[in-house]
């Protein structure tokens, strides 16, 4: 799994990022550190579908172990979307071990920025009592948007499901 780190996130965490491009777009997630409700949060956006997750108020250890943190969040997202534990394990196995890379291109970063701005606009939806921001994610992933892996407007959640179905994973 490729975890594309923005330059500010590389500076924040001290993680170095190698070149991107070894994995298919369904296994690539661009990551950025954002601030919501006064806390540092992690925004992850799948490069193909623009499916997004937000983790609120990460601990210093979670920032240090960013790859593990992000992979666990992806697994949690798949569970939330109704995929079984074996299906989640299959996706994570197909994605391979996590590697820090540079972000996956200008277009993908533009869509990451749009997801970030949407999260800022919906900051009142932040639930400070939980780390995985399911309510904010619901809002973000059900809005019509554009993405790098699919033409035209569409819903990130639906496109994410389509990407997973192409891998043989169906809810």
Automatic annotation (TrEMBL):
Residues 5-145 form the DUF6933 domain. It comes from the Bacteria. This is DUF6933 domain-containing protein.
